[in-house]
# Entry
Amino acid sequence: MLSGKGLVKTTERLLKEQPEIFDALLEFERTGKILKFTYKKRVNFTLDATLFRKFRTYCEKKGIKMSTRIEQHIGEDVYDSED
# Structure
C-alpha cells in the first residue's frame, strides 16, 4: 500500500494522466453516483500509406492491435521525456 511521498507522487501522476478519474470522484462526492468514464480516447491522424500497410501487416503477423502498439510507442516517448 502506498503512503507518504509515494502516494502523493502517484496521485500527481494520475491527475496529469487521467484527470477524468478525479472528475468522477468529485461527481460521486457531489451526487453519490458514479459516472461512467472511458480510459480511451478516439483520435485521428494521418500516416504514410506505405508505412501504414507495412505496420498493419506487422501487427497482424504478431497478433497485436495497431492501436495498442501505437499507444505503447507514444507512452514510451511521453513517459521517458518526463525523467
Observations:
- The chain has a mean pLDDT of 85.
